[in-house]
Structures are given as C-alpha cells and as structure tokens.
C-alpha cells in the first residue's frame, strides 16, 4: 500500500471519529463471508457504519485524535472492525443479540461511548445499559408529567364526587 493511500485512510478514520461520537472496536478474526455479510447488513439496518481497517492505521488515527485513546491501543491485535454510531448503546445491543445465538464472533474488544473507555468483552452488559439521549429525555418527561397527571386525575374524580353529592342532596330535598 502506498504511503499516500495510508495517509488517506488515516485521515478518513479521523473524520469518522469526529463525525460520530461513539465507536466500538470489534474482533472479526476468522469470520467467514456469510457471517461478515450478515453483520454488515445488521449494521446498515441499525444506522451503524462498519469499517474494517488495519490495526496500525487505526492506531495512527487514534494517536492523531484530540482525545487520548491510549487505553485502546492494547486491543489492536488480530482483525478489527470499527463500528461508528450516533447512539451509544446501539452496537452493544446488536452484539448482545448476536451473542444470544451462540455465535463466538464478532466479539467486543473495546468501545468509546459517552466519553468513556470500555475495554474487554465483559463490558458488553455495561454498554447495553447506557441510555441514549432520547431515552433519558423520555424518562425525564415521563417523570415531570406524572405529578401533573395525578393532580388532574384527583381533580376530575373530585369533580365527579361533588357532582354526585349535590345530585343526591338535590333529590332528597324533593
């Protein structure tokens, strides 16, 4: 590979790291074409950009980034795919679903999600538990709405009770 090509790949990886706030490093060593195609299809359906790249080029792209990714350097062995995503837990959910089918690969090597480093396959459950921005906003809205709903419900039931009492009193007076 020519030096210019390597420089272009490193620059492209740098652009992807700036464009996407989260990325996962996944072990794809020994995967056959069928499993790889299925993984690419799942990534496309989940709005995840998958890039298979040489570890040395990825290492140089990580070094050139503004963030200190030195904790991820040790996992750059074997065949590595990088999954770039807008939603922090989306690739983790996809990998967990694949693992539920008793498939050994792809396996999580490391991830950079919500400005934190997660190294090792055992971090998959922690990554699945990360809530996306939209999920957090939905929870906050639900929490803010519940007291208002309780007040409205109490007022409406009180209105029916008062109306029932007045109607009963009105009927007795006759």
Your description of this structure?
The protein is an alpha+beta fold and 174 residues long. It is 55% helix and 16% strand. β4 (107-113) and β5 form a beta hairpin. It has a 5-stranded antiparallel sheet. α1 (3-19) crosses α3 (55-64). It has helices at 3-19, 33-45, 55-64, 90-99, 124-128, 133-173; strands at residues 22-27, 49-53, 80-85, 107-113, 116-119. The model has no long low-confidence stretch (mean pLDDT 86). It contains 6 helices and 5 strands. The chain folds into 2 domains: 3-130, Alpha-Beta Plaits, CATH 3.30.70; 131-174.
Question: What is the topological layout?
Answer:
Layout: H1 3-19, E1 22-27, H2 33-45, E2 49-53, H3 55-64, E3 80-85, H4 90-99, E4 107-113, E5 116-119, H5 124-128, H6 133-173
Antiparallel strand pairs: 1-3, 1-4, 2-3, 4-5
């Amino acid at each position: 590979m020519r030096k210019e090509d390597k420089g272009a790949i490193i620059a492209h990886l740098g652009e992807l790291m700036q464009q996407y706030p989260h990325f996962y490093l996944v072990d794809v060593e020994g995967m056959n074409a069928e499993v790889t195609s299925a993984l690419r299809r799942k990534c496309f359906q989940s709005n995840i950009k998958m890039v298979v790249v040489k570890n040395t080029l990825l290492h140089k792209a990580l070094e050139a980034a503004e963030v200190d990714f030195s904790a991820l350097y040790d996992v750059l062995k074997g065949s590595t795919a990088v999954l770039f995503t807008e939603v922090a837990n989306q690739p983790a959910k996809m990998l967990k679903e694949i693992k539920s089918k008793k498939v050994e690969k792809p396996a999580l090597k490391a991830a950079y999600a919500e400005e934190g480093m997660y190294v090792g396959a055992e971090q998959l459950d922690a990554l699945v538990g990360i809530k996306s921005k939209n999920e957090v906003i939905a929870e906050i809205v639900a929490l803010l709405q519940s007291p208002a709903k309780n007040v409205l419900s109490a007022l409406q039931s009180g209105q029916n009770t008062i109306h029932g009492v007045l109607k009963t009193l009105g009927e007795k007076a006759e």
